[in-house]
Design goal:
Helix content: 10-25%
Bound molecules: uridine-diphosphate-2(N-acetylglucosaminyl) butyric acid
Strand content: 25-35%
CATH class of the largest domain: Alpha Beta
Length: 337
């Protein structure tokens, strides 16, 4: 374990932003994490996972601890289900592919989401009709101040749409070290309810889809709409889809009858931010090296040398324009540092 100084984080954030950490260390085990936390009690600390959900707008004047704990294992099973514990530093997509290879079902709709396993509970990642909370059992986390390990049950995580306790009460207090999922061994619940998946499977002439077929369909859809961070810096959806009151929706809908929406409850409606941003004229636009992706307006991109501040400015411009045009406030999903 070696602490490095003035360390470039460009390779450690999927936006590919150049920013420096005052100090940087990668920890490979729970013991290393404990030691670092014990030895640096008075230093400001910044916990870094896969770096796929953050926008760095400045250098980090802290000890950056990169969570690189690897390993996955079956911890329990019966005839129908398997309980798998994955360490936080496993790459999410590789983990998903591994579960599919073992014929374990439940994560296939979340194929190709960037990031590491340990950060998936923080924002309850989701895609194509599935969220992490559907298969999540618990996660283990180390208290940053006391180094005690705590298990968070699903209830304690308080999951919501891109929400969890780790964005609120537990924020900056814990480091997630491993996550336990309960997956199916047979009678898989294949979920093709999301329109794009059905269309993609039809295109591929698949009638009775397997886990692998669903995963391949999701990969094909994502590759057609979402930029690969290795080729074009980005952080997936930059904004959340806003959830607004029925009254507010009706007002906006009267002015824009073609506005898509999903009913959330009797009183709330979700509107796709990508649609609002596209209508506001931003899709595919470029401002220097910062831009809005041409196939998915929810995704902001770095064409090479954009600074975090430049991308933040574009995001603010989008928010202000959407608010003015539709009366709807859209909130960033990524963490702006
Ligand atoms: N839309 C547009 N223009 C755009 C993008 C979308 O009009 O540029 C419209 C689409 O036509 C569609 C609606 O918006 O009517 C929804 O689009 P899509 O199905 O692509 O999903 P999304 O709401 O844009 C969400 C997640 C994605 C996830 C997809 C699929 C959020 C913030 N984003 O996007 O998650 O992959 O659904 O489930 O909830 C991520 O979080 O990084 C991410 C990519």
């Amino acid at each position: 374990m070696q602490i490095q100084h003035n360390f470039s984080l460009k390779k450690y954030n999927t936006f590919g932003i150049e920013a420096k950490a005052k100090q940087f260390v990668a920890v490979l085990s729970e013991e290393e994490l404990k030691t670092i936390l014990e030895n640096h009690k008075s230093d400001t600390k910044f916990i870094l996972g896969g770096g796929s959900n953050m926008l760095l707008t400045q250098d980090i004047d802290a000890l950056v601890i990169h969570i690189d704990l690897k390993g996955k294992k079956v911890i329990n099973e019966d005839d129908d289900f398997v309980w798998i514990e994955s360490q936080a530093g496993e790459v999410w997509h590789e983990f998903v592919l591994w579960t599919i290879d073992q014929n374990f079902g439940g994560l296939e709709n979340m194929s190709l989401i960037p990031g590491n396993v340990g950060t998936t509970p923080v924002q309850n990642i989701g895609a194509y009709g599935t969220e992490i909370k559907d298969t999540f059992i618990s996660c283990n986390a180390m208290n940053i101040s006391t180094q005690e390990l705590k298990t968070f049950t699903k209830d304690e995580c308080n999951f919501g749409y891109r929400e969890s306790v780790f964005k609120h009460e537990a924020k900056d207090k814990y480091v997630i070290t491993s996550v336990v999922f309960k997956l199916t061994k047979r009678n898989h619940k294949i979920n093709t309810s999301y329109g794009d998946i059905t269309k993609e499977l039809e295109k591929q002439n698949v009638v009775t889809p397997t886990l692998k077929d669903v995963s391949n369909a999701v990969i094909a859809i994502r590759q057609s709409k979402l930029p690969n961070p290795k080729e074009l810096g980005n952080s997936g959806s930059f904004f959340k889809n806003p959830i607004i009151s029925k009254e507010q929706y009706e007002k906006a809908h009267a002015l824009h009858p073609e506005m898509p929406h999903y009913v959330i409850s009797e009183t709330e409606v979700k509107v796709p931010a990508g649609w609002l941003i596209e209508q506001a004229g931003f899709k595919g636009k470029r401002f220097g090296d910062a831009g809005i992706h041409k196939n998915q307006a929810l995704v902001l991109v770095n064409y090479g040398n954009a600074t975090g501040q430049e991308i933040l400015n574009v995001s603010k411009d989008i928010q202000a324009t959407v608010l003015k045009q539709f009366g709807i406030a859209i909130e960033a999903e990524v963490n702006v540092i």
